[in-house]
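Z., the sequence and structure:
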Amino acid sequence: MVELGKNALDKIPLDTDLRDAIELAQRIKKEGRRRQMQLIGKMLRSRDVEPIRQALDKLKNRHNQQVALFHKLEQIRDRLIDNGDDAVAEVLNLWPDADRQQLRSLIRNAKKEKEGNKPPKSARLIFQYLRELAESEG
């Protein structure tokens, strides 16, 4: 929990003493940090940790879902660049509100960049567009 950021810590049900101890441990370095970690462990042993464990699992699961989504979007992007119009139809089935013309333009540019061994700017733009579509979906 000491490694988590402030936003993530806010999502975990902690009492004020434990939260203060964790925030202090985040500021301390070296030996003092080790002692503070021991204090946090001692505090946790005297509390019901199940709600904390569930909140941490939820944070971890959300991260794993986001990583899986990014891998899926990368695969779709690669299929778009490799297969062209067939893959565009697949994207339009997944997200009917996608802009066919914009996708085809980005695909054309990505193919040119790939053939010319240029940086994959359009491929990144395709990924960003797919991510926007996925996020707008919910």
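The CA atoms of residues 95 and 133 lie 7 Å apart. The mean pLDDT is 89.

Let me know what you think.
H.
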